[in-house]
Every structure is written in C-alpha cells, then in structure tokens.
Amino acid sequence: MASLTTRLGPLRLKNPVLTASGTFGYGQELEPLVDLSRLGGVVCKTVTRHPRAGNAPPRTCETAAGMLNAIGLQNVGIERFVDEKLPYLRRFDVPLIVNVAGESVEDFAFLTRALSAESGIAAIELNISCPNVAHGLDFATDPTLTEEVVAHARAATHLPIIAKLSPNVTDITLIARAAEAGGAHALSLVNTFVGMAVDVRTRRPRLSNTTGGLSGPAIKPLALRAVYRCARAVQIPIIGIGGIMNAQDALEFLIAGANAVQIGTATFVQPRAALDVISGIEDYLEANSIGDVTQLVGSLVTDSGK
Ligand SMILES: Cc1cc2nc3c(=O)[nH]c(=O)nc-3n(C[C@H](O)[C@H](O)[C@H](O)COP(=O)(O)O)c2cc1C
User: Fold this and answer.
1) Dist CA 306 CA 304 (whole Å)
2) Do the Cβ atoms of 247 and 283 come closer than 8 Å?
3) Residue 229's domain spans which residues?
4) Is the pLDDT of residue 179 over 90?
5) CA dihedral defined by 96, 97, 98, 102, rounded to 10 degrees?
C-alpha cells in the first residue's frame, strides 16, 4: 500500500484530503454519511468572537459551473462553539482545524488564544479572506496587514497556524510571502472569487448581498495557478482549494505543488466526495507505482520554464 501520510509543518495528516471551511458544517451534519476518521482533517465553519446571523437570504445561487454564496459568516460564536461543537468533534480520530475570523488583529489573536486553551484542536486556520462581510477582505489584500495578523495569531498559540488567502488580489505571491514572514506554518489557497448573478425577470441581484463568492469547477484552473505560483514563492506547505470535485482534480493540485487539498463545493453534490478523492489518489499511486504521495508534490514537468 502506498503511503498517503503528509505533513503541514508540525502537523502530520494520515492523508492529504481535508474538508473546506463552511462546506462541512461542524462535522455533525455529515457524520451519518461520512466516516470522519478516514479524512486527513476536518476544517470547521468559521468561528467568530460573537455569534453572527449572517446575511439575509437568498444567500446561495447555482452558476453554470459552480455556485455563488454570501452566507456572511453565520456561526454560533466562540463560546457556544467551545461548549457545544468542540466536545462532539474531539471524539473523532481526525485532526480538527478550527477556522477563525475577526474584524481586527486583536480579534484574531483573542480567538487563537482562546481556542489554544482547549484540547482536541490540531491547528488554527485564519480566514483573512472572506469576501462576504464588511472588512472581511482587508487583511489578505494587504501584505502588511497579512503579516501583522498572522504574527499576532502565531504569538498567541503553540498550535500550527494556517493562513487562508484570497484570490481577489493582483499578485497572490506577495500575500503568501507576507503570511510566511508573519510566521504561518502553512497556507490555504484559495477562498472564493468575488462574483455576482442577476435575475433578469426582476432585474435584481440573485443574492441579497448583491455579490458573493464563486466556488466549484469554474474556479479550478484559477486556483491551480495560484497554488503553482505560491508553491514557488514560499517554503511553507500549501493546501490547495478550489473546484476539486474528484481525485483527478486533487492530483492536479498536488502535482502543481500543494501538500494537501480541501474539498468544498463537491461535498454539496456528493457528501462522500472527500472519501472518494482519498481512494482515487490511492488508486493512482498504486497504478503508477508511486510509494509515497509526497513524491507527487510539486512534480510538475514544464517546458515553458514559467
Ligand atoms: C457555502 C459556502 C460557505 C463557505 N464558508 C466559508 C467559511 O465560513 N470560511 C472560509 O474560510 N471559507 C468558506 N468557504 C470557502 C471554502 O472553504 C473554499 O475556500 C471555496 O469554496 C473554494 O473551494 P471549492 O471550490 O472546493 O468549494 C465557503 C464556501 C461555500 C461554498
């Protein structure tokens, strides 16, 4: 059997397939359908300092090759997360990565510190890139802010810090380098691309928030390029995210330089998508006589030199 074990800095995963924040709830919702302990890791819905009701509906709409969402970070807030969600999640033999978002550097540090005092958390993912809330994007569009927020979160914890970046920037490698300089142990990329859709009958936006984040197959080539470029710009590991629907897609990200992947929108189509990706990667390794998944990482062969 080929080895699927992979590392994200100090964090060891039994396979490189995780669930993406906001698409897997708090694990509980999917547990009847998915054996959580088979996953490389679970990243739960963004948690904020205070509970958030999110945006008014409609908050999602289907597009030609994916979906738009503007949930607006609806969540129960850190107190209820720790009291109600964490005890359930820590029962499973799977690394739990808690995704957090704040409106200030201090919010991120507070959330990181508070969660670090709890047992059963493997890493913190900083959502510095949510496109659907006021100020949500500020951090990951400015290298100085990115470095500052990552450094403060890093100083507030002994846990690995993963910075989740926005693709809605001119040059994502500048932000990746800033997150690395701030002390991030790994990068997640990408969050959703800002988009919109119009109902021509009513001439109104299809989302109450007017704009939303595009995810799913439409963004895969864009996300893949972002991963490829960042993998050559930083030394820290990268988690590839964006339109991964099957094992073939996941393999593309690994070959382009991702050390692991997250499955998002695909779970809405097929709740067991992440498990299918794991077995598909296993089959590929066997078929190609590759003994260790890490041998694939960054193995892209190019003639262009780009
Ligand atoms: C309905 C929905 C809700 C999401 N909520 C969050 C969230 O709370 N925090 C976050 O960091 N990303 C969130 N995301 C972004 C995903 O984690 C992922 O980065 C993005 O969807 C791209 O991956 P995909 O194309 O595989 O879905 C959300 C995505 C969707 C579709």
Assistant:
1) 5
2) yes
3) 6-295
4) yes
5) 180
Quote the percentage of the chain above a pLDDT of 90: 91
Q: What phi and psi values does residue 241 have, to the nearest 5 degrees? A: -140, 140
What does the pLDDT average to over 7-35?
A: 94
Which atom of ligand 1 is closest in space to residue 245's alpha carbon?
26
How many folded domains does the chain comprise? 1
| Ligand 1 first shell, C-beta below 6 A | 20-23, 45-46, 67, 69, 71, 73, 99, 127, 130, 164, 191-192, 215-216, 219, 241-244, 263-266
For residue 213, being part of any structural domain is answered with: yes
> What average pLDDT does this structure show over 211-222?
98
Beta bridge partners of 95: none
Residue 209 sits in a domain whose CATH number is 3.20.20.70
Q: Is residue 283 part of a domain?
A: yes
Is 301 part of any domain?
no
Residue 252 has pLDDT above 60, yes or no: yes
Tell me if 1 is assigned to some domain: no
At 75, list the tokens.
């969540």
Q: What is the pLDDT of residue 132?
A: 67
**Token pair recorded at residue 191:** 């969050």
Residue 203 to residue 100: CA distance in whole angstroms: 35
| 63 phi/psi in degrees, rounded to 5 | -120, 180
Q: Are 17 and 274 spatial neighbours (Cβ–Cβ below 8 Å)?
A: yes
As beta bridge partners, residue 238 has 187
pLDDT recorded at residue 299: 98
